[in-house]
Amino acid sequence: MSGPSKSQPRFFIGIDLGTTNSVLAYFDRNRPERGLQVLPVPQWEGPGSTTEDELLPSFSYCLSAAERQGAFSSDSGPPASPLEGWVPGVFARAQMAFSPGRVIHSAKSWLCHMDVDRT
User: What is the rounded CA–CA span in Å between residue 34 and residue 36?
Assistant: First the structure.
């Protein structure tokens, strides 16, 4: 199989925005023998601690004022510093046990709930 022409994309990308986990997969038309590949996602495990995993837990944690004091800054690359004080992924999922009121989870399920005012 030859590579993609200028009118065809090189990569096919699939995104699963799941209620529990999100995943990003891709297929490289220049390397079809590799098949479908799942992209590891860099994410925070804790302050100053990062990991890469194929699953990104669909949780987001709102940092406290004390937690925003640089413990989650990353000048050396991924994962990025928390956007607007929010940390997604494995750290956020772990915080459900300690600060459930500061964690967004199951947001997709609530969007489908008949009693939720979506406005």
Answer: 7
Whole-angstrom Cα distance, residue 59 to residue 61? Answer: 7
Its pTM stands at 0.75
8 A C-beta contact, residue 56 and residue 45: no
Structure tokens at 44: 């925070």
Distance of CA 104 to the CA centre of its chain: 13
Single-letter amino acid code for the residue at 92: A
SS3 46: strand
Alpha-carbon torsion angle 37, 38, 43, 46, nearest 10: -120
| 4-61 pLDDT, tens digit each | 667 899 999 999 988 899 999 999 999 999 999 999 999 999 888 889 999 999 999 9
In three-state secondary structure terms, 57 is strand
Tokens 């772990």, located at residue: 94
